[in-house]
Each structure stands twice: as C-alpha cells, then as structure tokens.
C-alpha cells in the first residue's frame, strides 16, 4: 500500500492523492449523499415560512418557503449546510421536487381555509433551471395541488442564471408562459450585467441582506440600495428587501420607495401552524379575500 501511495505521489509530481483528511472528507461526502438521497423518501425535510410584507400598508400576501432537514443523527440541518452539496451532486432535483410539491399542497390548503390571497416564493437552483423538463415539472406540481400559477413565485440567484444564461433564459421564459412569477434572489452579490438583467422575464428583485443590514449606518449601502430600487422600478420590477432587522432600516426603505420587506423585524421563518397564527395576529391583516372558514 505504501508503494502504491508513493507511485501515486510521483506520478502526480509530488501532489499527495490520499491525504487522510481527504479520505474522511470523501467518506463524509458519500454518507451525506446517501443520507440526502433517502431524506426525500423518508420525509425528513420540513418547510418553514417567512412572511413577506408590503412596505406601504404592512399587509402580508406572501411568504418565502425555506427548507430544513431533520437528520436522524445530526438533528436539524440548515440549508446552507446541504443545499450547495446537493447542487454539486444532483440530489437537488429530488429536493426541489419535494419542496415544490409540499409547498403547493400547503398553499392549496391555506387557500381552502380562506387565505385566498396568499402566494408562496420557492427557492430553486441552477441545476433545476438546466433541466429541460423543469417547467413541465412545475406545471404538474401546480395542477396536482390545484394552485393557480400566479400564486407561485420562483426565486433564482443571479449566479444561477449566469452559469448558462441562454439555457436559463429558455427555462425562465417557459415558466413565465405558465404564469409563474420569477424573482432574482440575493441581488447585488452576483455579477450579472444590467444589459442582461433587462432581458430577463422576472417580476421581482430581492436585494441581498448584506446591503440592507447596515442601511442605517453605511452611506455607500444607501447609495447602492437607492439606485437599485430606482433601476428596478424603471424596469417595472417589484423590489423586496431581505434581512430587515431594525425599525430604522425599515423606515429608510419605505422612504426610498422599496415595495416589499422580509426580515426578523417582522418575523423569523415559522412552521405552518405558527405562520397561520402570525397571519391572524398581524395587525395589518393579509390579502384575505374571503374570511377563514373556521377562525
Ligand atoms: P435566501 O433564499 O436568500 O433566504 C433568506 C435567508 O435569510 C434565510 O436563511 C432566512 O432565514 C434568512 N433571514 C431572513 N430574514 C433575516 C434577517 O432579518 N436576518 C438574518 N440574519 N437572516 C435572515 P435560511 O433559511 O438559512 O436559508 C439560506 C439559503 O438557503 C436561502 O437563502 C436559499 O438560498 C437556500 N434555501 C433555503 N431553502 C431552500 C430550498 O427549498 N431550495 C433551495 N434550492 N434553496 C433553499
Ligand atoms: Mg430566497
Ligand atoms: Mg436571498
Ligand atoms: Mg441567500
């Protein structure tokens, strides 16, 4: 084994192929991958819902769906710990299908319970957009749940689009033809050109939290956020600010004409039952077109 190891080393100009740490890393990756592949079938995922509010009147007519993984040994795993890995390995496709399916069934139930104006935002990744049958998959999920396409908004990051702009564009256009709304997530952290952004069939632009959190202190961020809001409005997009944690930041965004807001100031991501409780208590109400059947 030592000999083989030495051969491997010399064949690779002294680069060690089999670091003990690396082995552990690969093993860990493989375990994670098989765990992930089982997770969707075993229903180990669950969804949280974070309210999205309109800044002018404070009404809430949408929530963002955020996935969590209840791992039998590791406990609750946040998405940043498994989504990037799932994207690399392709396991993301099964996760997206699970999330979309469960989110839409939940939304259908809320519509039946009287929260008729409610919409959901669901995060999707590059890999999803690169699948030619993704729009068809979304259409099936909508039809299965009996939810109108206009009540679904898919969030895509700039970098997901820029990975393969032409392929992404085809997919986004097909989704738009279905009537699904589209949002650019984490805006400002990628490197998409404005010329390209202009051509994208999106309706919402979500300004990344990193520009929002220091808005009450950092004048450079103020300039960036104000001009982003103006630009987005010129392009006919609705602007969402993510990560609002203080009243001061919220006030500034309202003054700048930002349309929608999300953040711990209003609510953390909530379980489905807590979200409904939150909607009931939220003083500005929701876009509730009919009264809940059993309030
Ligand atoms: P994101 O889509 O940009 O979601 C916003 C993240 O910011 C969420 O973290 C949310 O809990 C957090 N957040 C919201 N308000 C505040 C605030 O006021 N302060 C701070 N510090 N954080 C706030 P979370 O749930 O951990 O999700 C992280 C990322 O994981 C998401 O970023 C999204 O990119 C990805 N993700 C989550 N769920 C899914 C999913 O179902 N599918 C895919 N593909 N990605 C997902
Ligand atoms: Mg998002
Ligand atoms: Mg975001
Ligand atoms: Mg993010």
Automatic annotation (TrEMBL):
It comes from the Bacteria. Residues 29-283 form the EAL domain. GO terms for biological process: signal transduction. Keywords: Membrane, Transmembrane, Transmembrane helix. GO terms for cellular component: membrane. The chain holds residues 422 to 716 of 716 of the full protein. The keyword Ribonucleoprotein does not apply. This is Diguanylate cyclase (GGDEF)-like protein. The keyword Transcription does not apply.
């Amino acid at each position: 084994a030592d000999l083989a190891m030495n051969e491997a080393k010399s064949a690779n100009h002294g680069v060690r192929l089999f670091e003990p740490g690396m082995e552990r890393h690969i093993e860990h990756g493989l375990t994670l991958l098989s765990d992930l592949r089982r997770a969707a079938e075993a229903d180990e995922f669950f969804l949280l819902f974070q309210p999205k509010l309109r800044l002018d009147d404070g009404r809430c007519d949408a929530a963002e769906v955020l996935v969590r993984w209840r791992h039998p040994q590791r406990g609750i795993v946040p998405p940043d710990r498994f989504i990037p890995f799932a994207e690399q390995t392709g396991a993301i496709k099964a996760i997206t299908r699970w999330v979309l399916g469960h989110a839409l069934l939940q939304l259908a139930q809320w519509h039946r319970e009287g929260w008729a104006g409610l919409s959901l935002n669901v995060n999707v990744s590059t890999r999803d957009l690169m699948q030619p049958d993704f729009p068809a998959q979304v259409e099936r999920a909508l039809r299965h749940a009996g939810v109108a396409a206009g009540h679904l908004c898919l969030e895509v990051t700039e970098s997901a689009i820029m990975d393969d702009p032409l392929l992404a564009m085809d997919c986004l256009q097909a989704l738009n033809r279905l009537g699904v709304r589209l949002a650019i997530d984490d805006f400002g952290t990628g490197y998409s050109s404005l010329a390209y952004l202009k051509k994208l069939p999106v309706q919402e632009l979500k300004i990344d939290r990193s520009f929002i959190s220091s808005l009450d202190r950092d004048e450079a961020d103020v300039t960036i956020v104000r001009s982003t809001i103006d630009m987005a409005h010129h392009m006919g997009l609705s602007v969402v600010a993510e990560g609002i944690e203080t009243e001061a930041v919220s006030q500034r965004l309202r003054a700048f004409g930002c349309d929608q807001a999300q953040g711990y100031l209003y609510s953390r991501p909530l379980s489905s039952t807590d979200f409904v409780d939150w909607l009931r208590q939220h003083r500005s109400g929701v876009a509730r077109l009919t009264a809940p059947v059993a309030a």
